[in-house]
Amino acid sequence: MYRSLVVAAGAAALLAAALLTSLAVGAATLSPPELLLALTDPQHPVHVSALHVRLPRALLGAVAGAGLAAAGVLLQDALGNPVAGPELLGVSSGAAVVAATATVLHLPVPLQVLPLLSLAGALAAGLVVVLAVGPGSGPGASTRVVLVGAAVTAACGGVVVAVIGLGTEGDVVLLMRYLLGSLSARGWNDLAVVALGVVPALLAALLLTRSVAALRLGDHVATGLGVSVARVRLMALLVASLAAATVAAICGPVAYVALLAPHVARAAAGTTSTPLVLLVAAPVGSTLLVVADLASRTAFYPVEVPVGIATTLVGVPLLALLTLRGRPA
Amino acid sequence: MKVPTEPVLRARALGVGYRDRQVIHALDLRIEPGSVTALVGPNGSGKSTLLHALARVLTPTDGVVELDGTPITSQRSVAVARRLALLPQSALAPPGATVTEVVDQGRYPRTGALGMLRRGPDDAVREALGLTGLEDLARTPVAQLSGGQRQRVWIAMALAQQTDLLLLDEPTTYLDVRHQLDLMELVVRLRDEQGKTIVMVLHDLNQAARHADRIVALRDGRILADGPPAEVLTPRVLHEVFDIDALVLTDPVTSRPMFVAR
């Protein structure tokens, strides 16, 4: 308990440091006092870039990272599947279908509305998976999510490829924004959309964790403890879908943060208790994404690597390491 | 002669089944408060299924289970969990979770939504760890324990629920002789000192005869014999229920009946 709180505080401190670095580093690198000046003084040459480009982007990374981490914790513990992540829910492919269709067919959609439409696509894909899995409980739930999720993802992928085939080369460039996870060129509006989905999802996740923790003991034990097993599992999947869908709609597929943050949290806090893991995983997820985004825009400056690629490149070896070390799932 | 009491748990015309197979048929059963009841029967006789239906983990296809005179499925599940704890056979050991963390889950029905932010295990958890002799293993991951030690963890979790009713599905499975005896003595002590009501599925008939107030013998989802050990543990019942030819003796230690197969 105390260790978890200390680790959570440590992760929050790391997050603060990552945010500050992210704000300070860029085309013009600023010292902390300069940064403060740039953010507050409208006459400062970097004011617009600091306040309307770097700040929302950094905060978006933090909010999205926490949302992905919460989705990972809920999915892993509610399904009893240590490698579960929002990829299972097909949300990013649902977002991609909408984005691809709107872009290629040149639907008269204002740019501000496109994220909301993508969100609808992401949520629809998540809902299809969750509802197809059904409230039925039992060890089969995890398997059914994997199978139905794979089917929905494959179907959406097929649609996206088909739609791209109808488009021009110019459309494909636009589409990259949705097909590869990225925080680039996201502003306050984008942050607002993500926060509107992620903040309620985080609160709901916190309230659900105690019941989700009981699911880890098996459905009969959980029922005996007074947990409404089917309802709790359904709620956990819906909340995870909400968090993952809002992130996918705005940032595209950001892989591995949801999978890794809970594992890092369990290892660092030395506990597998769902509520404590969530408490630690949220700031860990934020930090992971902010750092990954910072790396993705500075590593090959001025060329930017989509952050989804950065998280994958970091995530795969880390996951392999965790697996080989036999970390408790 | 005992004064008839209101049953604390009651099955009326209970039918329980899975998709294509009816396991329990029109079964009536009254569980009196402060008693130790053993459910016995051959494999597939429906004794575990009956126990799970009594604990509202399985939903009946017919009839009703009443807890304190009210249908159990119409009561809030958390409220039921404050009255009745179930030790199932199918408990999973969550990877990485310690003994204390698992036993602490028994407090679920008694803590609010923010109960997870409590400082640590409470008195009920410590008492349950003590009663099951798990103090020394409190910080050990459950996944590292032997089958018998794990069994004691699930029992401790049920005890931590602090319910008047305990439903135990084969609680002595995996336990060595010493721990089997300890557990049976604990069951009797919980009845005597705290007035708890215990219903347990047992495989060992002599164990049932030695420690239970009452034995309910099932076969093919029906009760074939029901009564004090002396009435149930007879050559005729043993033949009808288990198809065995048995010699029934008097246990020299407890004066209860015991059987030896011929």
From TrEMBL, chain A:
Top-level taxonomic group: Bacteria
RNA-binding listed as a keyword: no
The UniProt record lists the keyword ATP-binding: no
Topology within the bilayer: Multi-pass membrane protein
Pfam families listed in its UniProt record: FecCD
SUPFAM superfamilies to which the protein is assigned, alphabetical: ABC transporter involved in vitamin B12 uptake, BtuC
Compartments reported by the entry: Cell membrane
Predominant location category: membrane
Signal sequence residues: 1-27
Residue spans crossing the bilayer: 58-76, 88-107, 113-133, 145-167, 187-208, 234-256, 276-295, 307-324
Keywords: Cell membrane, Membrane, Signal, Transmembrane, Transmembrane helix, Transport
UniProt record similarity statement: Belongs to the binding-protein-dependent transport system permease family. FecCD subfamily.
Protein name: Iron ABC transporter permease
Organism annotation: Nocardioides hwasunensis
UniProtKB/TrEMBL annotation, chain B:
Record has Ion transport as a keyword: yes
UniProt superkingdom: Bacteria
Pfam families (alphabetical): ABC_tran (PF00005)
SMART domains reported for this sequence: AAA
InterPro entries given in the database record: AAA+_ATPase, ABC_transporter-like_ATP-bd, ABC_transporter-like_CS, P-loop_NTPase, Siderophore_ABC-ATPase
Location of the ABC transporter domain: 3-245
Tagged with keyword Transport: yes
Membrane topology: Peripheral membrane protein
MF GO annotations: ATP binding
Chief site of localization: membrane
Localisation per UniProt entry: Cell membrane
UniProtKB keywords: ATP-binding, Cell membrane, Ion transport, Iron, Iron transport, Membrane, Nucleotide-binding, Transport
Name recorded for this polypeptide: ABC transporter ATP-binding protein
